User: Fold these one by one.
Assistant:
Number 1:
Amino acid sequence: MTIIVVMIVLCLPLQAQETITAEQVLAEMDSPTFVPTVKVGKVLHDGDSIQYMEMNNVYVYPQLTFKNKKQAGQYMRLVQNVKKVLPIAKEARQMLIETTELLDMLPDEKAKEEHIKRVEDDIFRTYKPKMKKLTYSQGKLLIKLIDRECHSSSYDMIKAFMGPIRAGFWQVFAWGFGASLKKEYDPEGVDRLTERVVRMVESGQI
């Protein structure tokens, strides 16, 4: 993926003073990660059948411009990283919902611990190959997007399901790679541009 980014960036105009728009950058990229959906139906109003259409949210932002190829490349990498790890974060959210619902139905702590162990083993088996393919930046972004999707940091989720000892172990492990499982998502601050990209990816606009 890095090779693709470099190749596309090298194809951008060479003039140092020429600005590059986000639209120009995105035009070089792949198709949307999430396909836009359209729902068509009918409602009865005063005896008349009226057809309606529901579509994904469409977000309109001020146009981004980049002063040089380096800035354009950074934006392109952000978009590509979001497109790669956002589906994983959404899968984590769904697993959290399903696991929580099932745990509430189990009769005792022993049954809950056994189920959590099975879930943990399944996560390692399913996601370890995917995680090994993520870059350092993608891994840090995934931690933040899990917080966005689940409204809880990765550390808090591990602590809730597996206990503080395991949570502490994985936090130390993350520190070894310069990351933190306690990192929170800030859509109005430092992660403002990321939130813009995430929303447009979710809506199928990019």
Number 2:
Amino acid sequence: MIITNTTRWIAVWVITAVACGCSVVNAPPSLEPGMPRRGITPRSYKMKLAVLNLLDPTGSGGRLSENVSEMLHVALFETGRFELMQRAEVRGTDPNDIDTIRKQYQLRLDALVVGSITHFSPADKTMALNVNVMNAYGLTMAAKAFTVRYTGTINVDADREDIKRIAEWIEREFPKLASGLVLSRSDNRITLNLGSGSGVQRGMWALIASRGDIIKDPQTGEFLGSDIYVGEAYVIAVNAATCEALVVDTVEGKTPEIKVDDKVVFK
């Protein structure tokens, strides 16, 4: 005879009830039918960033190009909003070759923070800096110009408050959003029920979740199982109330199993 999980559950419930001398017992939770889908290993649960060395077409920034990047990495970490790739992993990369960097880290990152010194003024010890947050697949998500003060001549350091201001701007650009649902799927494209009215921006990443082995309490109807992540996608088009996202292969190189009504959790 084949013993199923449900049979074992009922047997334990009956034996326990008899041993306790219960005259009235409630039915055990029921297992909902259906095979659970394969879970994935997300690249991250928070929005994961890498801060690259600054581009310096002025040729005057010197060690400030690395100094600013190190300080911005720390300031972003201190917001608590993001997961950061270690600077040691990207410190030696060439920011002029952004496409190569993107492809190299595509399966490990959500976005890159790229800065460029556009003007350097030793007289008033300031530099003009353009900061760009770019999706790992090349979509520009946010961009803004800043003025950063610095001190020193040989041992040069950027002003911490100015760097903190950049980190706070990035944090404001990517607030934590409400959860949503998958409305439809066509091949590797899905439509979600959240749009610009909910704060969704082009390039944002979302985790797609589905229930795994589900146990339902017959008295309350409450689902006692937990969600599992089945896919990741990034937004490619945004309307007021909906958005379209592109599903990407998992870090294991498999195609995610995503269905209508799956839960969407933005990073």
Number 3:
Amino acid sequence: MEEDRHIGEAMTTIRTTCKRCGDVELTTGDIGLELAEDDSTGNYRFSCPTCGTVQRKPANHRVVSILLATGVDYEIVPNLGVITEDEIAAFARSLDEGGWHSELTAQ
């Protein structure tokens, strides 16, 4: 992380990696942090400034601490656990039912 000075303000530059483009530089406003409600870890998300791909990456305790210290916005997300086989079966059945595709394309 490095700070650039612009018109008397400190601007934090955060470096991360895009899966397509490689190293990219972002500002705190470019990153969103999702914190686990029962843990000090989470995920951060951003849109690559080069290719526009939205990405979500794991954030361990150290990364969470750094992002929070630099002023990145965050939200607490509930721990929903693993997807069960019953949930997968219900999802598969809903795909077999008609209408879902037309609902998506109508929006």
